[in-house]
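Interim report, section 4.2 (structural modelling).
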Amino acid sequence: MPAYHSVFLDRPNPQVIGAITLPHSRTTSNALAASCPRTRGPAPTLPPLPPDVAELTIDDSHESYDPLDEILALFRANTFFRNFEIKGPADRVLIYGILFVSEALGKIKPGMGRRDAEKAVMNTALDTNFAIPGDASFPLNQAFEPPRDRNEAEVLRQYIQQMRQELAMRLLNRVYADGNTPSKWWLSFTKRKFMGKTL
Amino acid sequence: MAPQTPAVVMDNGTGYTKLGFAGNDSPSFVFPTAIATKGPSAGGAGGGSGSGRPAVANKPSFLTGGAGPTGHLSAKRGTEDLDFFIGDEALNAAAGPGYGLHYPIRHGQIENWDQMERFWSNSIFKYLRVEPEDHYFLLTEPPLNPPENRENTAEIMFESFNCAGLYIAVQAVLALAASWTSSKVQDRSLTGTVIDSGEGVTHVIPVAEGYVIGSSIKSIPIAGRDITYFVQSLLRDRGEPDSSLKTAERIKEEFCYVCPDIVKEFARFDREPDDRFKKYQMQQPGGRSVTVDVGYERFLAPEIFFNPEIYSSDFLTPLPNIVDTVIQTSPIDVRRGLYKNIVLSGGSTLYKDFGRRLQRDIRHLVDARIKASETRAGNAAKSGGLDVQVISHKRQRHGPWFGGSLLGQTPEFRSYCHTKAEYDEIGPSIVRRFALLGGPGST
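Predicted structure of the assembly:
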């Protein structure tokens, strides 16, 4: 059984740019999200989580389940794998997401308080100077396609920006699920590299 | 005829030796197949003869008794040749000065006959405390053991130890016999696929009516030791206070299990943390007590059988696919029997739900192939389906030994053995062939 693929592969996709999908996603409604208004972006929004469903336990058939939930769910399993066969645009979202989670997780040091970790991780997430598919410094250009024009590139950049921030916030929620110390279970994954790559 | 003493069952594996008497439920002694002799350790493969003296006969002279000098041993014997330890005592002795540790068996086969002979002599006289001339012996051998090795074994057993009778059985066949204790086994057939996973290597061995199908055997370089290493690497990633091999081994043995799906299992750890995360208390050599958290390695470690990719970068084929390939390369008329009777044996198959996961994965492969072939046939021919059954049973850990104990206690066991008299009459070549114990015609 090889690495896990995205369940969004066989769902209708709203838009494909640079060979990755721009799927629907919902935004986390917590104080941190309100403080950085840029989580808004081009991704069409899904209904927010109903009160009876927690972020940690959402099921992949739920209507509010988005690719970011999936990234965080598959992150721990997939980081063990070096080979990954890309079956469609949704898998590319998964790859990018997992690699970003790796990067963000690397910013959290053992014993770091939640506030410091937020600062470090959001710094990375909010940094507008990141590579998108097609840029020379993007590590996965063989697997991704460059956007067709400047317009598309702009939308793609905004989407990835949105994804990075949203992922960072949800990751922090999980790593700091029980208090002000980071979970060592999550931090143990900082050294592993999915597909042997880093962003 | 000699009085009816129980047969001695000796299963010498690469890692551990199992000693006991036929008819017993479990071996009387289980200890590492290691021998400590005077002089430095041989280190690498093969061994060699300690302090530079030639490989001479290393058995007490009273042992040779009337058997006369043996062919491959020259006569020079000093008392220093008696100075050795086996098993756990060998490990202790080698920890101190003056002794070197040797492992006479490598990859299941005896590599150093001189050390093995001394190992056997201690096994018989110091541990089992029996007179070999009063007992029949049942020894085991790996599949594809060359006949010359059997002859050597017979030479030592008959000429050095003067044992009453000898039977050498293939470990895989004994493992099949051991599975007869499971309630899932209805007919006591000797057809089946044996998955034998010990410390060093995992073998998948198809056996048809008691005979090993040698051309289809496959081995996998992933076994107990690799699981230990993987647990250790996970402990280190997390920066646990103690990540020694010993701790990793204990965690592996105490906490690991096989899960149906790793992503779901991760989610389960998130949902029920109190139930899933465990703590392991250990005493460090200084007397300090240390607590090690046990987490995802509980299910990730045995997962390397089903997803070798997460551990190794050069071996990527999952165990279920290997088993499927082995059966598919066996003769077509025995495949059904091989799928129906997949028997586990060895310490690394003891994880909870190992058999269930293996059965599920093999069944998926088989069903997919049947479906594909039905589609190719234009749905003109329907398959009746294929029964895949993995047998796990209570005697798995020492499967081959237990199988030997089972067969060695049968009344007709002695008639299958070669006796000392037959050996004297014909010579070592007599052990090239043995009648099939427990095969068709016997009970």
